[in-house]
Specification:
The complex is a heterodimer of chains A (253) and B (559). Chain A has 253 residues and is an all-alpha fold. Chain A is globular, with a radius of gyration of 18 Å. The longest helix of chain B has 32 residues. Chain B starts with a helix and ends with a helix. Classes of the chains: A mainly alpha (253), B mainly alpha (559).
Chain lengths: 253, 559
C-alpha cells in the first residue's frame, strides 16, 4: 500500500497518466507567471527527489506507462492553441520521459540535469506567453498573426525558444533525447521507436505553434517589440543552453 | 593541412554572424559580406579538393574538447566543392533578386547557415555531428522556404517539408544509436573498420546489424530525396523564393545519394537492402517522370522532374553504382540549378522576343510540317535498336573489357539502350522534314552523353572508391541470382517492346481508339494528373489526426 502511494506521488511529479492531469490543472489555475516558471522548474525535480528516497525497485510497467503518457500529451498538444496549456502539455510529455534514464540507472545528478534541460526553455516560453498576454490580451495561436513583421525581435526569440523545446540541435534537449534513445535501446528496442515518434510529434507541435503566431499579415495595431535588455537576457540564456548542449555531448561518449 | 576542412564550414558561420552584426549599419550592403564569405568558402573548398586529389585516403580532424570529427576524404571534399559552388551562385543571384523582399539580411543569414550545415553534413566524421547537421538542414530549409512571412501557402508547404524531413531524421537517429551501442564509438571510421572486420558480430531483434542499419539509412535517404510516398513535399514547395528552390533542387534534395555513399561500408555488408533501394528508386523514377508529364503547372512539373531524377540516383545506388549516383547528383544539381535561376530571365526575354530562328528545327517543332518522305520503317527499327547498343558497348569497352560480368553494368547498359532507342524512335515518330539530319543529330548527342557519362563516372569511381576490392564488393552486394536477373531483363524488354508495338499500332490506325482502352487511359490520366490523390490523402489524414487530438482533449477536460 505504501509502495503504491509512493509511486502515485512520484507519478504526480514525474508525470504518469492519469495523475499527470493534476499538474496541468494546477498550471492552468496559476495566473502569476513567476509562479508558473517556478512550477515548471521545480515540479520534476521534486519527483526526482522522491525517487532518490525510494526504498524499493521501480516496477517495469512504469516505463511503458511513462512512454504512453509522453505520447498521449505529445499527441494532444497538436490541438492546443493556448500557449500556457501548450507549455504544460509539452512539459508533461518531456518529463514523463525521465523515467527512462531512471530505469537505466543513470546517476541521479544527470537525470536532474536532463529535467533542467527540458524545463528551462519551457520557462522561457511561459515568460514569452505572458508577454503576449500583455500585448494582445491573450496568448493564443491563430488569434493574431504576423508577429514576425510586427514584433521581429520577439518573434526571433520565440522561434529559438520553441526550437529549444522541441529538441533541435544544439540545444540540450536534443542531446537528452539522443541519450534517452541510447538508454531505451539497451532496455527495450521497441521503446526507442516510441521515443522517436514522440520526438516527431513535438516537431509537429512546435511548427504548428510558430505558424499560428509569426506568419500572416499583421494587424493595424503595432505593439511594442521586446526591448534590448530583455532580448539580450533571452539571447544569453539561449546561448548558455547551446553551450550546455555542446558540453553535454561529453555525456554521450 | 587537413585542418583546412575545419575552416570550410566556419567561414559561412562567421559570415552569418557578421551579416547580422552589420545589418543595421550597412542595410542591403551587408549582403556583400555574405557573398564574400561564400566566395571564400568556395575557394577553401577547392583547396580541400586539391588536397584530396594530391593526398589520397581519408584524413580525420577532431574538434577540441568534443567527440566531433570532420573527415577530409574524396567524398567530403568533392561534395563540399559542389555545395560551396552552388551556394556562391545562389548568393550572387539573390543579391539583386531578393532586393525588394522584406527580411533581406535574414535571408542571407539563413543562406549562410544552410551552407554551413550542408558542409558539416558532408564532412561529418562521427555520427553525432552527422545527426546535428542532418537535422539542422531540415530546420533551416523550413525557415528559408517560409521566408515570406505573409505567404501562408509557402509556410504550409514548408511545414510538409519539415515533417517529412523529421520523418526521415528519426531512422537515422535510431541507426546511429544502434551503431554506437554495438561498437561503443561515434566515429564513422572506427565503426566501419570494425564492421568490415566482423560484419556478423551484432544482431538486433534477431536480424543482422548491417541489414537493419542499412535499411534505416535507406529510409532516411528516401525522405530526403523525395522517393515515392514521401515525395509530396517536393513539388509543392515552389512558393518559396526562387534561389531557395534552386539550392533545394540542386543541392539539398541530393542528400539521400550522399548519405548512402557515406555509409557504403554498411551497405556492402548488408544482404538484400540494396535490392529494395533499387526497386524504390526505379518506382520513383517511373512515377516521377509520369507525374512530370501529366502536370499542367510548370513548377509542379519541375518538382516531379527532380523527383524522377532522384529516383534514378537512388536506383544507381541500388545497383551498386555508388559513385555514378554522386556524378548524377552533381550533374542534375548543376542542370536544375541553372533552370531555376535562368527561368526568370528566359521568360522575361521571351516576352520581348521569342528568339527562335525560323530554320528547319522551327518548322519541325513549331509548325509541325509533315515529312516529305519517311525512311522505311524496318530500317528505322533496326537503327533504333542497334545503334544505341553499339554506342553503349563501345563506350564501356573503352574503360573495361569485362563489364558484361557485372550485373550493375548490364542494368545501366539496358537503361542506356532503352533511352537511346526511345530517343531515335521518338525522333522518327515526330515526322520531321529532314529526317536523316534529325536522326544523325539524335545519335551524335546520344553518343556524346553516353561517352561523357561513362568516362566521367569511371573517373568518379576511381576517385571516390580507389580500393578495387571495395569497388568489387559494392557491385557484388547489389547482385541478384543470375537466373532471376536474366528473367527480369527479358521480362522488362518484352514489356517495353510491347509498349512500342502498341504505340506503333496506335499511330498506324490514325488515331482511332478502342473504347475500353480510351476509358482505361482516361482513368490513368485522372489518377496521374491528381498525383494519385496522395496529397489529398495526407491532408485528410492530418485533419483526422487533429480532430482526434481535439476530441481527446475534450474528453480529458483539456488537462
Amino acid at each position: 500500500m505504501t509502495e503504491a502511494a509512493f509511486l502515485l506521488l512520484t507519478g504526480l511529479f514525474l508525470p504518469l497518466f492519469p495523475v499527470s492531469m493534476l499538474f496541468n490543472w494546477l498550471l492552468g489555475r496559476t495566473g502569476n507567471h513567476l509562479l508558473r516558471a517556478l512550477l515548471l522548474l521545480l515540479w520534476p525535480q521534486a519527483g526526482l527527489l522522491l525517487l532518490q528516497n525510494l526504498a524499493f525497485q521501480v516496477p517495469e510497467w512504469s516505463l511503458t506507462l511513462a512512454l504512453a503518457t509522453s505520447a498521449l500529451y505529445a499527441f494532444r498538444v497538436l490541438a492546443i492553441r493556448d500557449i500556457g496549456q501548450w507549455c504544460g502539455f509539452l512539459a508533461t510529455s518531456s518529463w514523463a520521459m525521465l523515467w527512462i534514464p531512471v530505469h537505466a540507472d543513470i546517476p541521479m545528478f544527470h537525470v536532474q540535469l536532463y529535467a533542467l534541460g527540458f524545463s528551462v526553455p519551457l520557462v522561457l516560453l511561459a515568460f514569452l506567453g505572458s508577454g503576449l498576454e500583455q500585448r494582445f490580451g491573450a496568448a493564443c495561436t491563430g488569434l493574431y498573426g504576423g508577429l514576425a513583421e510586427s514584433i521581429p525581435r520577439f518573434s526571433t526569440i520565440l522561434v529559438l525558444v520553441v526550437l529549444a523545446i522541441i529538441a533541435t540541435p544544439l540545444f540540450p534537449s536534443f542531446f537528452i533525447m539522443t541519450a534517452m534513445l541510447l538508454q531505451a535501446m539497451s532496455a527495450m528496442p521497441a521503446l526507442a521507436v516510441g521515443i522517436a515518434g514522440v520526438w516527431l510529434l513535438w516537431s509537429w507541435a512546435g511548427a504548428w505553434l510558430l505558424q499560428g503566431l509569426i506568419i500572416g499579415i499583421p494587424g493595424e495595431e503595432r505593439p511594442a517589440d521586446l526591448h534590448a535588455g530583455a532580448t539580450w537576457g533571452y539571447v544569453s540564456i539561449l546561448g548558455l543552453l547551446i553551450m550546455a548542449g555542446i558540453v553535454g555531448t561529453g555525456l554521450l561518449s | 593541412m587537413e585542418k583546412i576542412i575545419l575552416i570550410v564550414p566556419m567561414i559561412p558561420v562567421l559570415s552569418a554572424l557578421l551579416t547580422q552584426l552589420f545589418s543595421a549599419r550597412l542595410a542591403h550592403d551587408s549582403a556583400r559580406i555574405s557573398i564574400t564569405g561564400s566566395l571564400l568558402t568556395f575557394l577553401v573548398s577547392v583547396a580541400t579538393l586539391w588536397f584530396a586529389l594530391s593526398s589520397p585516403g581519408s584524413h580525420t580532424v577532431s574538434l577540441p574538447d568534443t567527440p566531433a570529427l570532420l573527415l577530409l576524404d574524396p567524398l567530403s571534399s568533392l561534395m563540399a566543392t559542389v555545395i560551396a559552388g552552388i551556394s556562391l551562385i545562389v548568393h550572387i543571384y539573390s543579391r539583386r533578386y531578393m532586393a525588394d523582399e522584406a527580411g533581406y539580411c535574414r535571408f542571407f543569414i539563413l543562406l549562410d547557415l544552410m551552407t554551413a550545415a550542408l558542409l558539416v553534413m558532408v564532412a561529418a566524421g562521427d555520427l553525432l555531428t552527422l545527426l546535428i547537421a542532418w537535422h539542422l538542414v531540415g530546420v533551416l530549409l523550413y525557415f528559408l522556404l517560409g521566408h515570406n512571412t505573409r505567404d501562408t501557402s509557402a509556410w504550409r508547404y514548408a511545414f510538409w517539408t519539415k515533417i517529412t524531413y523529421r520523418l526521415g531524421d528519426l531512422p537515422l537517429v535510431i541507426a546511429a544509436v544502434l551503431l554506437y551501442q554495438a561498437y561503443g564509438s561515434w566515429s564513422l571510421p572506427v565503426i566501419f573498420e570494425q564492421m568490415m572486420a566482423q560484419p556478423d558480430a551484432h544482431r538486433v531483434l534477431g536480424l543482422r546489424l548491417p541489414d537493419v542499419v542499412a535499411a534505416l539509412i535507406a529510409f532516411s535517404a528516401y525522405a530526403r530525396s523525395a522517393q515515392f510516398f514521401v515525395h509530396t513535399w517536393l513539388p509543392y514547395t515552389m512558393s518559396g523564393p526562387t534561389p531557395v528552390s534552386a539550392l533545394m533542387h540542386a543541392g539539398i534534395v541530393n542528400a539521400g545519394g550522399f548519405i548512402i555513399n557515406r555509409f557504403a561500408p554498411v551497405f556492402v555488408q548488408s544482404s538484400d537492402v540494396l535490392h529494395w533501394v533499387f526497386i524504390v528508386g526505379l518506382f520513383t523514377a517511373v512515377i516521377g517522370s509520369v507525374l512530370m508529364l501529366t502536370q499542367n503547372d510548370i513548377k509542379k512539373s519541375l518538382g516531379y522532374s527532380t523527383m524522377g531524377q532522384m529516383g534514378f540516383m537512388i536506383m544507381e545506388c541500388g545497383i551498386g553504382a555508388f559513385s555514378l549516383a554522386i556524378y548524377h547528383l552533381i550533374a542534375h544539381g548543376l542542370f536544375k540549378g541553372t533552370m531555376f535561376l535562368g527561368a526568370g530571365s528566359v521568360i522575361n526575354g521571351a516576352r520581348k522576343n521569342d528568339g527562335v530562328p525560323k530554320d528547319d528545327l522551327y518548322t519541325f517543332v513549331v509548325e509541325r510540317k509533315p515529312a516529305r518522305q519517311r525512311l522505311p520503317w524496318l530500317t528505322m527499327a533496326a537503327v533504333t535498336l542497334a545503334v544505341p547498343v553499339f554506342i553503349l558497348v563501345s563506350a564501356h569497352w573503352l574503360i573495361s573489357q569485362d563489364y558484361f560480368q557485372k550485373q550493375s553494368a548490364v542494368v545501366l547498359l539496358f537503361f542506356g539502350w532503352i533511352t537511346g532507342a526511345q530517343l531515335i524512335f521518338s525522333t522518327y515518330k515526330m515526322g520531321t522534314q529532314n529526317m536523316r539530319r534529325m536522326v544523325i543529330l539524335a545519335i551524335v548527342s546520344f553518343a556524346v552523353v553516353v561517352l561523357g557519362y561513362t568516362l566521367i563516372s569511371h573517373a568518379f569511381d576511381l576517385f571516390l572508391y580507389p580500393d578495387p576490392v571495395f569497388r568489387e564488393q559494392l557491385y557484388a552486394a547489389a547482385d541478384i541470382h543470375i537466373i532471376w536477373f536474366d528473367a527480369l531483363i527479358v521480362l522488362i524488354t518484352l514489356i517495353i517492346i510491347f509498349g512500342w508495338f502498341i504505340t506503333f499500332l496506335a499511330g498506324r490506325d490514325g488515331g482511332r481508339k478502342n473504347r475500353y482502352a480510351s476509358s482505361l487511359w482516361l482513368m490513368f490520366y485522372a489518377l496521374t494528373s491528381r498525383e494519385f490523390y496522395l496529397p489529398h490523402l495526407y491532408t485528410l489524414m492530418t485533419r483526422r489526426l487533429l480532430r482526434l487530438a481535439e476530441r481527446l482533449n475534450i474528453w480529458l477536460r483539456w488537462i
